[in-house]
Amino acid sequence: ASSSSSLTFAVRRSEPVLVPPAEPTPYELKPLSDIDDQESLRFYRSGIYFFRSSPSKIGQDPVAVVRSAVAKALVHYYPLAGRILEGPGRKLAVECTGEGVVFVGADADVTLEDFGGDLSPPIPCNEKLLCEPESSSADIIGRPLLFIQVTRMKCGGFIFAVQICHCMADAAGLVQLLIDIGELARGADAPSVPPVWARELLAARSPPRVTHQHPEYEEVADPARDRISPADALVHRRFFFRDEEETACLRRQAPAGLRGTCSRFELIAAFVWKCRTIALRYDAEDEVRIQFVVNARGKRRISKQPQLPRGFYGNAFAFAVASSTAGELCERPFGYALQLVTEAKARVLDVGYLQSVSDLMVLKARPRFAVARTYLVSDLTKSGLRAVDFGWGEGVYCGPATATLATFHIPVEGGIAVPVRLPPRAMERFCIEFQKLVHSSRSSSTSNAESPLGRVDSGLDLGSASGLGPISSKL
Questions:
Q1: Alpha helices (runs of H) in 171-215, residue ranges in sequence order
Q2: Is the peptide bond prior to 207 cis by the omega test (within 30 degrees of 0)?
Q3: Would you report the helix, strand and coil content of the chain in percent, each value rounded to 5?
Q4: Same structural domain for residues 40 and 166?
Q5: Among 354, 356, 410, 443, which residue is least crowded by beta carbons within 10 Å?
C-alpha cells in the first residue's frame, strides 16, 4: 500500500524474440531431480528489479547490454535454453535443444520517482512489465524456460523482469543466474562461479523409502473451511520491521531459551502467523499452519544430504510446517508460536529429511503441498538479490513482481519488509494487532510483558488506502 499503488503508465513492447546461447552448446537429455519436478513447482516464478540511471552509462542501451549478456550466460546455463519433456511416472527431463529464451525490449512512459519510495508487490502495472501473464500454474512442457523483459524508463533507469520455470531453479539458483548475467554484462569472460547441474544428488533412492513425517503434503481436516482465497477481493499492506526497534522488541519477548538462538526470520514469521490467524478469525478448533522454505545450502544445510557443490542452481529446499489449533495460537503468548516455528525448522534439518521428500515424490505420485489454512512465507533476505548488477549499480527494488497469498521477507534498508494480502476487514484487524508492536517497542526497551506485537510501515494511510474505512478498536 505504497504511494505508487494507483500508478498507471503506458508500455510499448517490441516483439518477443528467442535469444539462443552465444556459442554452440551440447545436445543432451538431462533428468531433473525429484525435488525439482514436484507438481507444486510446475509454474513460472517472477522477479523484478528497478535500476537508476547511471552517469557512466550515458549512451548505453540496457536492453542491448542485457540481451547480449543473457546469450553469453546461456553458454554456461545451456539447459535453460532447452525445453522440458515429461516421461513415465510424470518424470521431467530437460531436452537441451539450444532453442533459447524469450526476450522483450520495451519503453515505459514513467520515471523511477513516479513509483515512490516504498516499492513492494504487487508492482503497479506489473502485467505490462512481465513477458507472460502471471499464474500460479502453467503448462511448462515444451515451453521456453526463461522469459525476460527489459523496460527503459524515461528517467534513464530501467526495469528488469524475469520469469523462470520453478522446476529449473529455486530463488538461490535464480539469483546465481542473474548475478552471472550481471558479471558478463560488466565485461567478464565467464561467470566467477560456474553453474553446476548435479541434479542426481537429490534424486529418489532405489527403492524409495519415506523415513519422516511430511505434513506439508497432507491436507488439514475440512480444507474448505479456509477463510481466504485468491479469488476473494483482497487488499495489500507492506509491513516494515526495523532491526533496532520492532525486531529487537520481538526478541525481548521470546522465551529465554530461544532469545539468543532464534533467527530474525523465525521471530517475524511467528509473529505474522499469529497476527494473521487472529485477523482471519478461524474457529478455535481449526488447525492452522505456517509453512516456510528451509534451504539445503550453506552452513545449516539439511543434515546428511550430499554436500551440494558450489554453483548448484537447482531446487534445494524442503518445506517446514508448524501447526496449532487457532484457539491456542491466538490465546497463548507469542513464545508459543515462536517455539512451534523453531521446532518445525529443526525437524526439516534432521538427518535424511530432504532425501525422504524425494522418495515421497516417487511413491505418492508427486503430491502438491497443502495450502488450506496455511500461512506460506519465504525468506529472501539472504538470497543475494541485491548483488545483481548489470553495470548500473545496485537495484532500488529487488523482489517479487506480483502478490499472492504466499508472502516474502524482502530486504530493505534498515530492516525487513513483509507484504501481506488479506480480505479488507481481516486487514483492519491485522493492522490493529500490528500497531501494538509500535507501542511496545517505543514504550520500553527492557519490558518483558507479553503482548501481540506489530507496526505498520511509515506513511501508510489506514483510513483510506485500498478503500478501508476507519480502524475501530471494537473489531
A1: 171-185
A2: yes
A3: 30, 20, 45
A4: yes
A5: 443
Point out the least confidently predicted range of 16-25, 265-274, 362-371, 400-409.
400-409
- Inside any domain, residue 212: no
Is residue 308's pLDDT more than 50? yes
**Structural domain range at position 408:** 221-467
259 and 378 together in one domain: yes
Closest CA to 453 of 437, 473, 429: 437
Distances (CA, A) of 208 to 304, 357, 363: 17, 10, 7
Q: Are residues 360 and 399 in the same domain?
A: yes
Could you tell me if 229 and 171 lie in one domain? no
Domain count, the chain: 2
The answer for residues whose C-beta is within 8 angstroms of residue 24's C-beta and 6 or more apart is 98
Cα distances from 408 to residues 127, 187, 272, 346, in angstroms, run: 20, 32, 11, 21
CA distance linking residue 329 with residue 273, whole number of Å: 9
Statement to judge: residues 139 and 284 lie in one domain: no
| One-letter amino acid of 211 | T
Q: Is the pLDDT assigned to residue 191 strictly greater than 90? A: yes
Pull the grid cell for residue 81: 535454453
Indicate whether 152 belongs to any domain.
yes
CB 76 within 8 A of CB 195: yes
- Cell numbers 553458454 correspond to 75
Mean pLDDT of the residues in the chain: 89
Looking at the fold, whether 225 and 117 belong to one and the same domain comes out as no
pLDDT digits (tens, 9 = 90+) for 417-435: 999 999 999 999 999 999 9
Indicate if 341 and 461 belong to the same structural domain.
yes
Looking up residue 63, the CATH number of its domain turns out to be 3.30.559.10
For position 443, what pLDDT does the model report? 67
Helices (runs of H) and strands (runs of E) counted in the chain: 10, 16
Strands 407-412 and 374-379: parallel
Q: What is the mean pLDDT of residues 15-36?
A: 98
Residues designated catalytic: 166, 389
Which one of 177, 194, 211 terminates a domain?
194
* Per-residue pLDDT at 441 exceeds 70: no
Residue 474 falls inside a structural domain: no
Q: Is residue 272 part of a domain?
A: yes
In 3D space, the residue among 371, 186, 375, 355 whose CA is nearest the CA of residue 280 turns out to be: 375
pTM over 0.70: yes
Name, in order, each residue with C-beta under 8 angstroms of 163's C-beta and a sequence gap of 6 or more.
Answer: 44, 45, 46, 130, 131, 132, 134, 146, 147, 148
Instruction: Centre a 10 Å sphere on the Cβ of residue 70 and count the other Cβ atoms it contains.
Output: 27
Note the pLDDT of residue 136. 62
